[in-house]
Specification:
333 residues; two-stranded antiparallel ribbon; globular
Length: 333
Amino acid sequence: GAVLVRIAASHLRVGTFQLVRSTGDLELLRRLADFAIDRHYPVLADVEDPYSELLSAVVGAQAKLVASWMLVGFVHGVMNTDNTTISGETIDYGPCAFIDAYDPASVFSSIDHRGRYAYGNQPGIILWNLTRFAETLLPLLAPEEDAAKEIALRALSRFTGDFDEAWIAGMRAKLGLGGRRDPRPAGTAGAAGRMLERVDDEIVTEIATGLLGDLQEGRVDYTRFFRALAEAARGREASLRELLPEGRALGGWFRQWRELSPDSDAMDSVNPAYIPRNHLVDEALEAANAGDLGPFERILDVVSRPFEERQGLERYALPAPPGSGPFITYCGT
């Protein structure tokens, strides 16, 4: 037997609101919304329109959350409304996994036959879930349905901007293009301690789009690529070239990125060297089922310090060996 303790700020979900809304008890719905505000967004308690502000706050929280998933190559696997928190936390880790080769169509869940929850679909799916949340709040937003819908649509329209802002900020950090120190030696005129200006959003987006296009075409390992890219920023490009298919060159984004003097140390602080590689997770689960918790304890130690490269852990940074079958996850995993 076992007890699984699930830790979160609360377990209020979009599904919780759907359940209450389905009862038709609007006073119960108001009590639930008030509780959610008190629990997660207490600063909204005294604003003029607390329920529309609650909707906007949840939209923003979920946009930032899913952007963070995309930045590290995480696939939740079962993004139904009952797995979408009001707090903006990730819950119900079941058929989740991290991508190896970059592919927006990556699916791991045994029940996701049509790719609804594929890696690249996650932003769209969370917006769909947030729309269901908005529907539950309509009676609280305005007395007239049309007015309530207008308020809801206005809050939902924030999603794209919130998501893009979070994703671009994260990609700027992954590329070493934010908060950068002048790379010139301290003795160089005007260089000592000088901070360079942050690279514009448009340039970050252009570079990231080109980079991801190269990764997808070459089916390049997402996690290893960004660590190798930091080495390239130090002038050591060998490990980066090794990841590319034979004969393939990087696109024009690479020269553009190099000319911006990326901060390699900053890159290493946000790009993990280790993720829970799917084949190693399977290995740990199989060993644990056989009574050996050693592999589980080792992989737990590795991913608890994901940004720190350590001697002897090279296998934990590698994808599955060539010829490995497709990785499948299950809701009970």
